[in-house]
Design goal:
- This protein has 282 residues and is an alpha/beta fold.
- The protein has a single domain (2-281), classed as Metallo-beta-lactamase, Chain A, CATH 3.60.15.
- The chain is built from seven helices and 18 strands.
- The strands form three sheets. A seven-stranded mixed sheet has the order 8-5-4-3-2-1-18. A seven-stranded mixed sheet has the order 9-10-13-14-15-16-17, with helices on one face.
- A hairpin with a 2-residue loop joins strand 6 (104-110) and strand 7.
- The longest helix has 14 residues, at 71-84.
- It starts with a strand and ends with a strand.
């Protein structure tokens, strides 16, 4: 399996960065995107990397926030442009949690008072019409030891205890604990590789679920956003304690993890710097 970072908050060389996330994954003949960033940046960076996105097999959405799914609308435009030029392409299957398409909002305070800001999927109807969509709360094997984790069990007492805005379920506005948050895991003979988006459900909860599904304790690598932006001391301390007690070869931390949190984790685990253009083979 080869993993390339298409979108992240940091970039080097001639690549572009934004506050979003997208991975391009190649695994035994299949091509997979984990998230699409916020804009068309994943398309621009892929072109610079000579990565052809015309034949993507799957798009896995880690959750429904716009910095991870906003690029879908641009992918639709990209495909329509190919159609207009009579260029063949493959329409990928979207895999996500059922709640990933629900409306999400943040309350923003400004001079005019409190207002709502859309923080989720846009043009859902067109996306559902244009792509095959496989929504599942349950984990399943996508292809040859490559797994979708489904809804993450939340079993510890320190992760994801505060809502992040609001979501709409069956016409009712409720606090959003991002139950649509999910991740991917690849099982090898040497151990497992975990790929996360934002880890809203908690990186420790995600690791535990990956270990259960793969029946494996050895973690070769965990790559992605760990949702540690100015975390409370208890959250940081307990996360570090958990990571310290795991059999993890290295962590690739990016997107929604700040420098101080990465520094704290570096005390208990090997940390590698991640940016747009980084790639890994497992």
């Amino acid at each position: 399996m080869k993993v390339t970072v298409l979108v992240d908050n940091k970039a080097r060389h001639s690549f572009y960065a934004e506050d979003g996330f997208s991975l391009y994954i190649e695994h035994e003949g299949k091509k997979i995107l984990l998230d699409t960033g916020m804009t068309d940046l994943f398309l621009k960076n892929a072109e610079k990397m000579n990565i052809d996105l015309k034949d993507i097999d799957y798009i896995v959405l880690s959750h429904g926030h716009d910095d991870h799914v906003g690029g879908l609308n641009h992918l639709v435009k990209y495909f329509k442009n190919l159609e207009n030029r009579n260029i063949e392409y493959k329409k990928p299957c979207i895999i996500c949690h059922p709640l990933a398409f629900n409306k999400k909002y943040k309350k923003i305070e400004n001079k005019e008072g409190m207002k709502y800001k859309n923080n989720g999927m846009r043009n859902e109807e067109e996306i559902r019409e244009f792509f095959d969509v496989n929504v599942s709360q349950e984990s399943f094997e996508i292809y040859n030891n490559f797994f979708y984790l489904g809804e993450i069990e939340r079993n510890n007492d320190f992760e994801n205890k505060k809502s992040l805005g609001f979501t709409e379920i069956e016409g009712k506005e409720i606090s959003d604990f991002i139950y649509d948050d999910t991740a991917l895991v690849y099982k090898t003979n040497e151990g497992i590789v975990i790929l996360t988006g934002c880890s809203h459900s908690g990186i420790c909860n995600i690791i535990e679920q990956a270990k259960r599904i793969c029946n494996c304790e050895k973690i070769i690598y965990a790559l992605g956003g760990f949702h540690l932006r100015n975390p409370e001391k208890e959250v940081m301390d307990k996360t570090c304690d958990y990571i310290k007690n795991q059999d993890i070869s290295a962590l690739g931390i990016c997107h929604c993890t700040d420098l101080l949190s990465a520094a704290e984790l570096s005390r208990v685990s090997k940390i590698e710097e991640i940016h747009v253009g980084s790639y890994f083979e497992f």
